[in-house]
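Final report, Chapter 2: Outcomes

The project's central promise was a pipeline that accepts a single protein chain and returns its three-dimensional structure in a standardized token representation, suitable for archiving and comparison. That pipeline is now operational. To close this chapter, we reproduce one record exactly as it appears in the project archive, with the input sequence first and the structure output second.
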Amino acid sequence: MLTALKLGLTGGIGSGKSTVAALLGASGAAVVDADAIARELTGPDGLAMPMIVAAFGAEFMTPEGALEREKMRTLAYANASDRQRLEAIMHPLIRQETQRLAALAQAQQRQCIVFDIPLLIESATWRQQVDRVLVVDCTAEVQISRVMARNQLRRDEVEKIISTQASRQRRLGAADAVIFNVGLSLEALADEIRQISHHFGLSSATL
């Protein structure tokens, strides 16, 4: 059986990582998206919700049975111990689902599995589980402006989120390949992916 190349994809909030993941998917990669898995786990009647309610209280659940995301974001980014409690619930469940999806992609003989992991560099284990790391990079000021526009957050709120993530220098130091995503149109970004796709066993013809 063909062994798929495991590509870790990461970048700070607002870097454009999700767009890069979609472009890699268009080139034939199987994309395992940790954020999408987390949203499913904390959606209405998601697997994580009983544990979150037990740990944090019913006020962190909407009437539909989903996570009160704004309230949890405020708590988690204000208090490191609460963030760690949430991660202790979420990370094992996310890991279990990523392993299931990766096994499915391997069974389908996919040449490359992209693990879209926001906190890949911060993790004690993820770096050892992937063959290569692709970092989507941009300046802090670009991150801040993008996230403020996208999420309607205040500047200080975005800066607080950035401060909890690995530094730009640390991400770049762990990278096998880097895409500097500042001032690029979607077509120019696709061209960047096209130029590096063959290194990951992917086709550039569909980009």
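Archive annotation: The chain has a mean pLDDT of 91.
This record, like all others produced under the grant, will remain available to the consortium after the project formally closes.
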